[in-house]
Amino acid sequence: MEEKSIFCIDDDPHVVRSITRVLELAGYNVDSTSLESASIEILKLNRPGLVLLDISMPSISGLKILEKIRSTPSLAGLPVIIVSGKDDPKTVRDARELGANDFISKPFEPSHLLKSIRNFINSDLSPTRTTNFSHRGGDH
User: Which CATH code is given to the segment(s) 2-120?
Assistant: First the structure.
């Protein structure tokens, strides 16, 4: 597992480019996929330090991917931050119950994303620790 490596699962190429640009400028290595159906196998092979996960994707819900991550022994402890425009209370609650470590609403401020990532990478905090899910985003 590479501590400074982040894996982004999102079907929107504009969001992936934006996240990649912010994180690379901050010194992180970023890989991504829009192939939600293959994401678990890719994670098993790459073992990043953290996963950024969208919820609303065409072929499978990000919540379903989160559930698969948490039920896969080799991935279960991987920190997962949901980054999604679908931020209604039920979705946020479901994400928390399925084991998301944090939830950031789109659009988001880059500083909020970096702060959340730093809570789980290069820190002594447990990867199973969660934040208060404050829906930090842009103009919400």
Answer: 3.40.50.2300
